[in-house]
Specification:
By secondary structure, this protein is of the alpha+beta class. About 40% of the residues lie in helices and about 15% in strands. The chain is built from eleven helices and ten strands.
Amino acid sequence: MTYDQILDAIGTILRDKLDNHHMDRFAPQARLNEDLYLDSVLILEIMLALELDHGVALPEEVISRQDLDTVDDLARLFANASEPNGTPVKPAKDLVLARVEREAVERIGVHGEDFVDIKVHCFVSNVCHAVKQRQLDHRPFFFGVWDAGFAVDRSWRLAYHAPEINHDFFRDWFERLYGAKVRQWYQPDAAKVENLATMLELLERKKESEYLMVMLDLFHLPERENKFNQNPFPHYLMLEHTDDPAVWMVLDPDFRWEGRIEKQKVINAIMQPTVAGGFIFDAADIRKPSAVDLRDYFLACFHEDDNLLTRATREIVRAHLESRDGVKLPELSMALR
């Protein structure tokens, strides 16, 4: 296939197979993540569809390339691979397995194991973004996420957002490890309009080195992909002004996304009754953690004889097997989402 044919095929896959809602931005120079909202999984789906539906495949060593920024990059990758004297290729399923195996055995970098960008906790991801911007290693801070706060509701379901859950553990340890104080600006006892006014004032006068975090209901931001199809979807991200007073820059480290969204749409998601929370911290205060503090953090997180999440999961499974409180076994998958 020619470059133009591959470009058309990518557009067809996005529109007809992936039902992409941002095709008005589709063009060779459209950014895969920022403009078309494509993550690595969706890009891999495009690659598989190009082979299975259009007969164009990639050499094994190309599948793991990480320098694909635009539609043009992706189209040229396949165009080069489809040259008459190109390298013989393997089937897509073999490429996927090869990539997984290769990533498992070839992560050798400056720190021994290559950098892996962990994304499992939106609060932690936000503060760790600032650590990375300071060229410091954020990875030790994720050790505590395994036992991050959670709840089991009356229907025997795991919940990661509940009135009894807060981020004090991570806030305190972030300050001790990295030196920056994470201040809570959101006042739970105040009205939402009062908290919104506080946020707007902070956003207006914050320093360039400061990060403003806010919780919003991601379900009410259709511009963002709701990968887990959750409603509600409480989520922390960070905000910045742009040159357009009607548009904010949204930084979402947990989903590896940043982009411009209309201010009123963001405010609508913030004002939903399902969410409440916000913090601010200054990245200028961030420093390298000491070895002693890292040791103490490890000891504070590590439960030698117990794992809270595993124990709660086991109890949820038992509750569904025994039909406690009227719950049914077919509901188990939703309970453990």
